[in-house]
């Protein structure tokens, strides 16, 4: 089954159930290579169809433009953007000191080709190999894959840019950091943006035991100055930001397995704080694994869709995947423009309620992300969001009941009720086949 998939048309092929029940000895072709499948295999036709697209390398695409704008903000850095999304769990997790029981490793959260090979869930997966190549300041842009809920700001494929800069850790080399900090501080000036900042080091977000705290402080300051300067350039003139109503950006303390201290940056957009990047001082273990133990530096990872949605006023993350001329023809390479919605077509929601099969052993049955992948495979980008509207366990039989509401809406045309009913019937039938549910 996997072998015969035609990537150009799988999006609309209504037969997703098979992919989850492939016999253990079969193979899946991913970007031209055959891989054995096993009990970890959970990559879906929808995901396979996205792998070759590389939106961040299309010059006029908002993601391509955003990439080049950020790259031009860091002219002296190396710019990498063509690494394969197929990585090992070692690259994605272990090389970055993720604990063995980190939830990101689970098949419910990440896409596996088989137990030894997966799709990167973040661009940090390439940190060790990039430092090991001798790169000391670099940006790396790529498509990343995560199993997730379905709504206007989540899509199982999105794009990140990783940036890093490392310095000689020896005390004399700290002068380079200080000079860079002086240069950046002088250059930073406020526009219609308010940045809420926090101290570089706190007891909850300390420097690493092997680091001189003053050096770590200087490196964390360097990270913040570089990113504040980028944020000012990107958002300083953001549509709608005025002196009276400036764009709000805030730094918050965070935790990542591969940095300390660590931070997140959020932007206030449409009444909500949106997380747009994570960053911190690179963990010594990462640098040791890359064979550059005498370095000290910072890294960040930012989500391109989140930023592009704000800068271009793109209301729904599915639009990035649109091949509709009314979307694509609006954009010119290298220039940010406000997206003009061509139309808003009516939504149509359908509910499905069912009993999950009883499993006395208490084994996991169907994760919300399994349901979302199933719906994506059947409905493609016609699904706008999926919500659980009811969930309970029967007190006597202990069976679990679920009700999901699927909201369908095309971004390009009106959907007929008959068409939506047909899609919903397919969802229900695959749900029965794959998970043995009993429709209520
Ligand atoms: N990889 C992280 C994520 O996807 C983001 C991130 C956090 C990248 C901290 C970094 C970093 O380089 O230092 O959520």
Automatic annotation (TrEMBL):
GO terms for biological process: phenylalanyl-tRNA aminoacylation. It is an enzyme of class 6 (ligase). The keyword Ligase applies. Residues 343-440 form the FDX-ACB domain. Belongs to the class-II aminoacyl-tRNA synthetase family. NCBIfam families: pheS_mito. This is Phenylalanine--tRNA ligase, mitochondrial.
């Amino acid at each position: 089954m996997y072998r015969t998939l035609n990537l150009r048309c799988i999006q609309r092929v209504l037969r997703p159930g098979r992919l989850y029940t492939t016999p253990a000895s079969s193979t899946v072709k991913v970007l031209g290579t055959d891989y054995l499948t096993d009990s970890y295999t959970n990559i879906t036709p929808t995901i396979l169809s996205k792998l070759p697209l590389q939106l961040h390398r299309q010059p006029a695409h908002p993601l391509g433009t955003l990439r080049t704008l950020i790259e031009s903000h860091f002219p002296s850095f190396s710019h990498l953007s063509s690494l394969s999304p197929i990585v090992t769990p070692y690259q994605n997790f272990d090389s970055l000191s993720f604990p063995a029981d980190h939830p990101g490793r689970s098949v419910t959260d990440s896409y596996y080709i088989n137990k030894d090979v997966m799709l990167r869930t973040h661009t940090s997966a390439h940190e060790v190999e990039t430092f090991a190549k001798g790169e000391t300041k670099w940006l790396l842009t790529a498509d990343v894959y995560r199993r997730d809920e379905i709504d206007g700001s989540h899509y199982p494929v999105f794009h990140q840019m990783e940036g890093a800069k490392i310095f000689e850790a020896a005390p004399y080399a700290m002068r380079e950091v200080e000079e860079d900090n002086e240069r950046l501080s002088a250059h930073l000036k406020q526009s219609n943006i308010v940045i809420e900042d926090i101290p570089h080091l706190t007891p909850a977000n300390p420097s690493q035991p092997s680091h001189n705290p003053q050096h770590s402080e200087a490196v964390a300051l360097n990270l913040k100055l570089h990113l504040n300067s980028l944020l000012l350039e990107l958002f300083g003139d953001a549509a709608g930001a005025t002196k009276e109503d400036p764009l709000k950006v805030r730094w918050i303390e965070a935790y990542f397995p591969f940095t300390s201290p660590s931070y997140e940056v959020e932007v206030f957009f449409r009444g909500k704080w949106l997380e747009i990047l994570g960053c911190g001082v690179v963990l010594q273990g990462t640098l040791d694994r890359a064979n550059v133990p005498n370095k000290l530096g910072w890294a960040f990872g930012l989500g391109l869709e989140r930023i592009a949605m704000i800068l271009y006023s793109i209301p729904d993350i599915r639009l990035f995947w649109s091949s509709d001329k009314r979307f694509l023809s609006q954009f010119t390479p290298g220039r940010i423009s406000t997206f003009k919605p061509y139309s808003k077509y009516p939504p149509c929601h359908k509910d499905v309620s069912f009993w999950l099969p009883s499993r006395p052993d208490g084994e996991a049955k169907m994760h919300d992300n399994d349901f979302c992948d199933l719906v994506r495979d059947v409905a493609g980008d016609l699904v706008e969001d999926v919500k659980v509207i009811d969930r309970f366990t029967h007190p006597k039989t202990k069976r679990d009941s679920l009700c999901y509401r699927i909201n369908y809406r095309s971004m390009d045309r009106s959907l007929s009720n008959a068409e939506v009913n047909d899609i919903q019937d397919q969802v229900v039938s695959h749900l029965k086949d794959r998970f043995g549910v009993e429709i209520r």
